[in-house]
Specification:
Elements: H1 4-19, E1 23-28, H2 31-42, E2 49-55, E3 69-75, H3 80-91, H4 97-103, E4 109-114, E5 117-122, H5 134-143, H6 151-160, E6 166-169, E7 180-186, E8 191-197, H7 208-217, H8 226-234, E9 241-246, E10 251-252, E11 257-260, E12 272-274, E13 277-279, E14 288-289, E15 294-299, E16 304-305, E17 307-308, E18 314-315, E19 331-333, E20 339-342, E21 346-351, E22 354-358, E23 360-363, E24 374-376, E25 379-382, E26 391-394, E27 398-400, E28 408-411, E29 415-431, E30 435-447, E31 450-464, E32 467-470, E33 476-484, E34 487-490, E35 492-493, E36 501-505, H9 509-546, H10 551-587, E37 593-600, E38 604-608, E39 611-614, E40 619-627, E41 630-635
Parallel strand pairs: 23-25, 24-26, 25-27, 26-28, 27-29, 28-29, 29-30, 30-31, 31-32, 31-33, 32-34, 33-35, 33-36, 34-37, 36-38
Antiparallel strand pairs: 1-3, 2-3, 4-5, 5-6, 7-8, 8-9, 10-16, 11-15, 12-13, 14-21, 15-20, 17-18, 19-20, 21-22, 37-40, 38-39, 40-41
Helix pairs in contact: 9-10
Amino acid sequence: MITLTEIRDYMKEQLERDKKVKSVQIEGESIANALKQASIELGLPVKKLEYEVIEKGTKGIMGIGKKNWKIVAYETRKPAAVQRETEVLSENPEIDLESIKEENKPGEVFVRLNNDGVFLKVTKPVGKGRSVTERMALSRLSERGVGDYDASLVAKVVKQADGEYIKIGDYQYNPANDSTISLEITDQDMKAYIVVNPPGPGGADLTYDDIISYLNANDVVHGIKEDVIRNFIDYPVYNDTVLIAEGTRPKNGRDARIIYNFRTDHSQIKLKEKDGKVDFKELDLVENVVAGQLLAKKIPPEEGRNGRTVTGMVIPAKAGNDVEFLVGKNVKLSEDGLTAVAEINGQVLLLAGKINVEPVYTIQGDVNLHTGNILFLGTVVVKGNVEDGFSVKAAGNIEVYGSVGKCVLDAEGDIIVHQGILGKIDGKARSGMSVFAKFIEHAHVEAGEYVVASDGIIHSHVDANKKIICQGKRASIVGGRLRATEEINAKNLGSVAGTETNLEVGYDPKSKEKLGSLDNRKAELESKLEELEKNITTIEKLQRIQKRLTEEKKQYLTQLNEKRSEVLSELEEVNRETGSLNTYLESLKLIGKVSASGRVYPGVKVFIKNASLVVRTEFKFVTFYLQSNDVKVTKYEAVEEEDITRRL
């Protein structure tokens, strides 16, 4: 417990400290006005003054109830570090001065008169803010007309500064002069304002509970701003309107909406860049989807949240409107009706508000700059031609009613070209199944099953995993290299001019080609391994002679050994894959044959498995076959009856 002697010593110490501070108490219409007067009285510029607000001023209503601001102003006492901080702030105007003021907030003193006594509250300063002095507390009590108080208790409250109201004395209470309050409800009961009159002599201040009770008694029960009331208790605003409660406005529910996982607006074309240049071939006009892909999702309408007036009346909100979720061909709607999923691969389209997936993409004209390159997860039908430099790729079939130039066709299904393929050396056509064309000229063609041409195959590279068939009135195979697993069958082979024409059958062309690549890789690895072995042997010999190696040599030897391990591992994998391919090729039961229903001219070379024959004299109506590792000639054997030539 604090003794009287301790209080006296403390007050004496505070008095001596305060004597050193040159200060003045001033009133003014505003803080700025009060500081100007203080500057005159203290003989100091305003920027060298600090101040504390003793009592806030009010403007009043129409001049009635107007009250001046009361402040205590004193000379700033800044340590060198603080002075430098001020200079830095003046040099850097972008620094947030408000946040700095908040960090350096002075302590405050509050006096309240309740019906049961006088209460005092003192708060601690923040940061470098100035602490409340006992004199400031006594001055505040004097302003409120309080003379009967416990001075020792006041000193204790100032010292503790715990921010709690403590009763420090009594006063002659007069209930008739209590602070009064009036209420106004406006904006269709959505806002409530109070106007508080200051207490008269002997009257009590309003408490938090007084204001809450008054509001409730006048039907204000919702949206009460409790933080405003608590702030009002310490910083009362008299004879002015204070927004004390605000209703909650209704929030209508959001309408249902559909979120599409694909582009619905194709009016704008996004061009792609390639090597820093715009690629006008990549127009990306087709939006592909796969079976099971989520196409769209519906967000249901929201209910909305009701509002409420300050008097507690409910203001109903409107629920959001629903929208119909429509799907068309090859699209499945979930049981809850909220998601749409593609049932097949194809092109997704939004037609008349319905989501559709089309398995066939039809181009009414040519594939050119207007269409760009085509990539589609279904079948592509081109009513015109495919111009030079463009590509058509499809997960289904590709059917071209016109001709194909120096371009790329790539299909998982069949490729059907009603006119012909004019590859101009660089044109390519790859099919997962079969290729059908009127003619093939200067092109690279690859098929998983058959290649069929009705008018001829000229100077092209053609591979088929089953048969190459060239039968028609003018059907001839002239020049190039053709490879088929089962058979090559044409009307004429070669030409009168003796054009070199290579025909290979009896093995899988792809596997044979891969085997050749593996053999080349094996040779490269063996050569690299030999070089590594030489280098390793050289360093190891040097180590035996010198007994030790430099760190650089040791590191190099380690790298060589690691590299050798990598090469040996890859070589082992190549040998394993080579053995597997050889076993597969040897297991093929098909021997293969080459047939001509018309003529076979000199210059034709026939390869059946590992045997070969160079045609030096003209043959008619013959079939070449393998017998005892030799290529033999027999009477022409027609191609077996199959429904593969009817597509053209």
